[in-house]
Amino acid sequence: MLQEDNKDKEDLSNALMMDSVVKTFGDIRAVDGINIQIKDRERVALLGENGAGKTTTIKIISGLMKPDKGMVRIYGHKPSSIEAKRYIGYLPEDASPYLNLSVRENLDYIGTIRRTENVQEKIEFFLDLLDLKSMEKQKPLTLSRGNRQKLCLALSIIHEPRFAIMDEPLNYLDIPTQEKVFDYFEKMNATFLISTHILSIARRLTEKVIILSSGKKVWEGQIKELEDLAEGTKTIESIVSELMKNVS
Ligand code: ATP
Q1: What is the value of pTM for the model shown?
Q2: What spacing in Å lies between the alpha carbon of 23 and ligand 1's midpoint?
C-alpha cells in the first residue's frame, strides 16, 4: 500500500501509481481493485475485451472521473491537481475539439492555455505533419472523421506532455498518417499509456502490456513475454485472448 503521508510528494521516477482502485456504476464493477505502476518513460499498452474497464481506468488516471476507492498518483500528484495536469496529455476515445474554433484556432487556444513553448512553430509543425495545413481555417464539423481525429491527436500532445494517455489514438487515421504518428511517438521522450484493441499498434508503440478483464488486471508483462508464450506456434492475438479469459 502507498503511504498516506507521502502521497503528494513529487515522484519523477513513477509516472503512475494506482493502488486498489474501484469504480462501480450501479451493480457494475467497471474497475475492480486495480493496481498499476508505470515508471517514467515506460510505454504501456492497455488491452482488454469490450467492457473490460479500459476507458474507465484511463478516465480515472486522467482525472476525469473519481474512483470510489483506492489511490491514484501521477508523478506523485493527485490526478485532479494542477501539477498532474501539467504532466498529462490525454486523448479520449470520443475526443472532440472546440467546434466553434477553426483547426488553427483550436491549436492556438489549447497550445496557449497549456503553455506550449514556441507555440506558433508547434502549430506549423503539426499542421504539416498531419496534412492539415489546407484545412487550417475550417471548423471541425466540416472535417472528415479522420481529419478531426488528427486535430484531436495534435491537441493532446502539442504541449509535449511527459505522460501521454491515449484511448485508441490511431482510430480513423489513414495508413500514411499512422506511419507518421508512429515515427513521431517514437521520438517523443514521454511515458505512454495506450488503450487499443489492435495488437500491432501495441507492438509498434509499447514494450509492456497490461490486460484487463471484467474490471481486474489479469496479466502484466513485456511484449517479448507474449511472443515467448506464443512460441512461434500460436499468434500473439490468440495468447492475449486466452489471457483475457483468466479472471479469478
Ligand atoms: P470498450 O473496449 O468496449 O471500449 P472498455 O474496456 O473501455 O470497453 P469501459 O468503457 O471502461 O470498458 O466500461 C466498463 C464497464 O462499465 C462496462 O460494463 C460499461 O457498460 C460500464 N460503464 C462505463 N461507463 C459507464 C457509465 N457512465 N454508466 C454506466 N455504466 C458504465
Answers
A1: 0.92
A2: 10
